[in-house]
Design a protein that fits this description.
Elements (H helix, E strand, L loop, with lengths): L3 E2 L2 H30 L6 H21 L4 H5 L2 E4 L6 H16 L3 H4 L10 H6 L2 E4 L10
Antiparallel strand pairs: 1-3, 2-3
Helix pairs in contact: 1-2, 2-4
């Protein structure tokens, strides 16, 4: 079963999928906080909590499965010669954050890199590959 580096479009689709899941988590958190604390849910502590939730989402899936829910849906996975440690996940997260903050240049980099690596891949020493479709099972 050969896998190839993931294309830009497929990776963007997986990112949109993951963004919708994270948005749902954030909405749940805000609704829960407003229910508990009333309208005093403002300030840097709320933003920090949401940022920690964002990191925890990606760290959990990258370390546990090597793929997020969005990556699973698009048959993408992270590969590396070394295990996904918390340090490697942190480097990947920082690379992803910087790549997005720089007008998504870190992700557009995929279009120019021969191995289709983003800044997060380069910084963490990983690569995102796309697995081929599994063979169709005959219907009985």
């Amino acid at each position: 079963m050969n896998s190839e580096p993931a294309s830009f479009i497929v990776r963007v689709m997986a990112m949109i999928y993951d963004a919708l899941i994270v948005l749902g988590i954030w909405v749940f958190t805000i609704v829960l906080l407003v229910t508990i604390a009333g309208d005093a849910v403002v300030g840097a502590w709320v933003q920090s909590l949401l940022f920690v939730e964002l990191f925890a989402f990606f760290a959990y899936f990258w370390m546990k499965r090597g793929q997020t829910v969005g990556m699973l849906a698009w048959r993408l996975r992270i590969v590396s010669t070394e295990p996904m440690t918390l340090r490697r996940v942190l480097l990947r997260f920082v690379g992803a954050f910087l790549g997005g903050a720089c007008l998504f240049l870190g992700y557009l980099w995929i279009l120019f890199d021969g191995d289709r690596r983003s800044w997060s891949d380069l910084l963490s020493g990983t690569q995102v590959i796309r697995d081929p479709k599994p063979p169709k099972q005959p219907m009985n």
